[in-house]
Amino acid sequence: MEKIIFTGPMGAGKTTAISSISEVPPISTDVRCSDNEGQARKETTTVAMDYGYFTLDDGQRVHLYGTPGQQRFDYMWTILAQGGIGLVLLLDNARPDPLADLEFYLDSFKDFINQTGAVIGITRMDVSNHVSLDDYRNKLMSRNQIFPLFEIDARQANDVKILVHALLAILQAQM
Ligand SMILES: Nc1nc2c(ncn2[C@@H]2O[C@H](COP(=O)(O)OP(=O)(O)OP(=O)(O)O)[C@@H](O)[C@H]2O)c(=O)[nH]1
Ligand SMILES: [Mg+2]
């Protein structure tokens, strides 16, 4: 089973990205944001997982699992990552310190990424461009890590598909 994990901070667009490309109405566990999630700037947040799937040209089904962004649900991250073949890391460029988010998620998923592979999608660059793609590349280089890196809009199916296909391509190249 081809299973891909979408992760990243709250509001990065994991739920949106999965619903953009899923062939079936995605299963979502979103609830209304409560007051202590006030910086969320959105109405709902994922508390357990997202799930959807799409089918490749060769008929293979790719299962899409999204993690909750909030750290208090981080026990779900390991559970959801089990059996995954690769990671899509989404980062919200409009958050205060997206480069710190990058480091946090690369560290949190270090073992998983080492065993599989990862691609990075930067969302909401239209909302804020205080950090550039070059800034992300420099941060990755300083960590001796190279991953495909794209600016994406999680609401655009094509953007999300490019990301997923890039991930499948690097995984194939590693085999
Ligand atoms: N302006 C803009 N909005 C975007 C872009 N990508 C996603 N969004 C919006 O950003 C929000 C992302 O929300 P979610 O998809 O719920 O984020 P999430 O990562 O699932 O968040 P949690 O489940 O709370 O961790 C949605 O309102 C999207 O419509 C983008 O590139 N530009
Ligand atoms: Mg979500």
Automatic annotation (TrEMBL):
<dbReference type="InterPro" id="IPR004130">
    <property type="entry name" value="Gpn"/>
</dbReference>
<comment type="similarity">
    <text>Belongs to the GPN-loop GTPase family.</text>
</comment>
<keyword id="KW-0378">Hydrolase</keyword>
<dbReference type="GO" id="GO:0016787">
    <property type="term" value="F:hydrolase activity"/>
</dbReference>
<keyword id="KW-0342">GTP-binding</keyword>
<dbReference type="Pfam" id="PF03029">
    <property type="entry name" value="ATP_bind_1"/>
</dbReference>
<dbReference type="InterPro" id="IPR027417">
    <property type="entry name" value="P-loop_NTPase"/>
</dbReference>
<dbReference type="InterPro" id="IPR052705">
    <property type="entry name" value="Gliding_Motility_GTPase"/>
</dbReference>
<protein>
    <submittedName>
        <fullName>Putative GTPase</fullName>
    </submittedName>
</protein>
<dbReference type="GO" id="GO:0005525">
    <property type="term" value="F:GTP binding"/>
</dbReference>
<keyword id="KW-0547">Nucleotide-binding</keyword>
